[in-house]
Amino acid sequence: MRLFTEEQESFIRSHATGLLNQELADLINQKFDLNVTRQQVKSWKRHRKISSGLSNHFPKGHVPLNKGTRGLYNVGGNKTSFKPGHKPANYKPVGYERVDRDGYILIKVSDDGPWQKRWKHKHKMVWEEENGPIPSGHCLIFLDGNKINVKLDNLQLITRQQLARLNQNKLIANDPEITKTGIVMAAIYSKIGELKRESKQ
């Protein structure tokens, strides 16, 4: 059984570089509402010879920057260490918004925890504030195809099976009404597929 869809595989290939397997798994789960493990991602990458470009080992002769020091408060040692409460120059406050490489708006919701806990997709927050958590096996699409338009009436909850049909048949348009029609057609295609499978049994 195939672990990822073509869309998900393309996403993984484009984001694998520079990320640890756990970080990549977290990103995949956040993006597609999945629950894949670090080991599943590691195995999938290994079979396809996809590398993160990272190394778990220091090169021979490497000398740690803090060698010979005793930490932050050692006089003359670790002069470049951050002091407690220090915020880096690129620090972004809670509530800050940015657009990620895939065109989605992210909003910072916390200063603590891993990346997926600190940043959330704004369109999901808008929808969940009105409707509650997105059900498992479902996702949101933008009816007008514009990922920046996160108004509630532009967000449509569909199943991942419907999404696969929509992408397969290119039924997502720039016109919300056409996309809504495409969702109905996707449901029909799925039903036809089910009937065909049943007839072969």
From TrEMBL:
Pfam families associated with the record: HNH_3
GO terms for MF: endonuclease activity
Name of the featured protein: HNH endonuclease
Swiss-Prot/TrEMBL keywords: Endonuclease, Hydrolase, Nuclease
Signal peptide interval: none
The organism's taxonomic lineage, starting at the top: Bacteria, Bacillati, Bacillota, Bacilli, Bacillales
Keyword Transmembrane helix recorded: no
Segments forming domain HNH nuclease: 120-165
Superkingdom of origin: Bacteria
Matching InterPro entries: His-Me_finger_sf, HNH_nuc
